Amino acid sequence: ADKTFQLGHVNTSSDDDQYQYYAVTFANKLEELSGGSIGIDIVTDSVLGGERDMFEGMQMGTVDMALITNFSLGSFDPEWQVFDLPYMFMDREEAYSILDDEEITGPMQENLYNMGVKSLGFGDGGFRHVICNGKPINSADDLSGMKIRLPETAIYVDAFKAMGANPTTLAFSETFTAVQQGTVDGLELPISSIHSTGYADICEYMSLTGHFYSPFQIQIAASIWDTLSEEEQGWMLEAAKAATDAEREFVQDKEQEFIDEMAANGLAVNEVEDKESLAEAASTIYDDYAGEIGQDLLDTVKAKLGR
Amino acid sequence: MLRKVDDFFNKAYMGVSVILLIVVIVATTIQVFTRYIMNASLSGTDEVARFAFVWMSMLGASICVRTYGHAVVSILNDSLKSKIKLQKSHDLIIQILIFIGAFVILKYGFNLVQMTAKQRSAGLGIPMSYTYACIPVGALGMVINAIANIVDDIKMIKGGTDK
Amino acid sequence: MTYAIIIFALLFFLIFFGVPIAYSIELSVVGFLLITGLKPMIIIPQKMEIGMDTFVYLAIPLFTFAGYLMEQGGLSERLVDCVEKLFGWIPGSMGTITIICCLFFAALTGSGPATVAAIGALMIPTMTSNGYTKTEAAGLLAAGGALGPIVPPSIAMIVYATTMGLSVPTMFMAAMVPGIVLGLLFIITNTILFVRKGIKPEHKHYTAKELLHSVWRALGVIFLPVLVLGGIYGGIFTPTEAATVAAVYALILGLAYRQLTVEKLINAMKKTVTTSAMVVFIVGASNAFGTILAAANIPKTIANALLPYLSNKVVYLLLLVVLLLLVGCVMETVSSIVILAPILIPIGIELGLDGMHLGILFSVTLIVGFITPPFGLNLFTSAATSEVSFAEVVKGVAPYLIASLIFVLMIAFIPQISLTLPALLGM
Ligand code: NA
Ligand code: NA
Questions:
Q1: What pTM value is reported for the model?
Q2: Which of A216, B11, B95, C334 is least surrounded by CB atoms within 10 angstroms?
């Protein structure tokens, strides 16, 4: 290849992993389109850094490309938090319809570009669900008082407070021990992460709460983007589009496969009977974040979803 | 004059570091206490603890330059023990290298702080530049302490016999 | 390969020239970037901050503080008195007591230097008044300090488990038997050395009342490891939070025993700041170093170069031990783990070796590096505590170093030492 870029992400290099699948599909398609002139070197397991430092790295020109999860973007540009709001999307179709809507995401991506990072496309990271010990969650009442580990993201923590839980922000590296020893009752993650991190072995229940949707983006440093020819830029965007389409199918198949596998190994999986009670309790934080996100953006997204 | 400035920096850095250590202890204690005993977690305690911790580490590391507290393989310097001037010259080169290393951290750390002024921390939403500022502030102390060591070394080489 | 040669040549030159380790690491990155222009220089401060800004590293100052509080608050003295009265009649007992105290203290702190500092302040005078030379005492103390990071809880193992995705409590359990075995090997070494010197131990007789009294005095201190380990396994706090609990408990106990003055407390804090900052700053510099290695594909290059030689288990284990002992000589444990474990361990797992067994082997071999010259944190700390030169500590530690090497080979080729206890507990 004439040009090789490093593409970093924080997940594992397993074939089952959706981030890895996205990265590999993108790399293959780009190689095909460019006739081998642009190569992608995928770097997994946070070796290039966590998402915060990879995003900073793209801004500074020390990281070429990365897959960045939506909840990491709120620190840089608060409007992206609109997709982190609890129960903003009730299913995948709703999420895809908004993310694919250029009127909404176009200007948001333009803002990222002005910050030094070019967004090429969206991947599907899946909905996040609660996995825990003690009891399954079927309503807001069940969640009341439960000690749930959350990542250090204010909007996530506030959502769980609103739903009545006792959110505790532990480092992810300490969480496994904490769940195992009962320091916390459980945590919440997308299905593929629950599967790959082994929490099914130490938890009794997985309740499909689907409280947050977690899109991720494939991004490239604007400083590199600007040096590419128009043709090369076109290949990049086309490869990202192909990766998005393929990965959206992949993640849905994989999630079902993982659920079946974990259920067969003794994890009790349940659909949430009274999801409305959770959504209603959680929605009380929308107003608190309207200012940061921008009332207009929030209203537009809600209107498009018919809320 | 230099020695006074240097002493002032080290005393201030140490004073602040001790306070930061107390902050680390209090914040983590509150985290355990509120989660386990009060069954309602106070958010942001881990972020406060980490913030205090990185600041304490950078300030403490700069004090170590003056006290020669950094871990070092001292075979070469030990072998020069009988030749004081040669030993001091060797240390002079090392202190200059420390000065260069610290200066790089200072200069680019300052750029980093400017770049991250708009970025917010994930938990408490404070500007990330407040955290990153520990890097140039600590490096400034390292630069000053390296200069103080260099001046001492030069005095000794020039024929000072006070050691 | 050119990249690898440039950066490692710079690193080794700076370290052996005598530039402090942290600056050697940072300056080798600076030099590498100047020569290759691979990344902008701003990556250095960014990666430094991110390397330090990690919740689990809070355990470093907190356990260190607990150690200094025990020293300043007279808690270590109570422990030593109790052990001395119970075991004082055994030949070479002062050395044995020092090792037992180190084992006990090791269960409280994750830090080798903290163990050396806390036990050393009391045991160096006791040993020298009982027939040991200062060199022997300093060497034994440095070795005993290696027990600190091996017997759980251990910062090195927290970092390893975090990096390699293992469970921290399981790893702690797996390290329990190896820690005791190493302690026993040190006791045997000490006894042989002492008997060969032909000195008879002093025969003091204590009444049952005196013995009970000294146990009673130490009871509060003996409860500390119960609290720390019980709290982690009982689901009250995480291993990092346990470090806070240890520090707060030692503080309360020191105040309750009325031996901890404000002056001593501030003194302990100041020592904690500089000791832990020194270690954490190395961690930060190593993060920049590690990122540059990854960006330049150096780990993969080295692993590929080694791969043809790693085709069977015995060769792999021997090469791993040799490589880690060399690395442990020049590099700090935490950074060695973060940089090397992800490259070297997957090869062993591929060969069918157990991940936990390799984890214990990896950690203990690096920790033995704490007492191997030229770079060993315990050697520096012991030299400082005992007020002897670096060369004398090295001379004193030599017999224990041989015992340690036998120990490392045992861990490498008898996986049951590490794996039986966690298996029995169903972990
Ligand atoms: Na320990
Ligand atoms: Na060593």
A1: 0.85
A2: B11
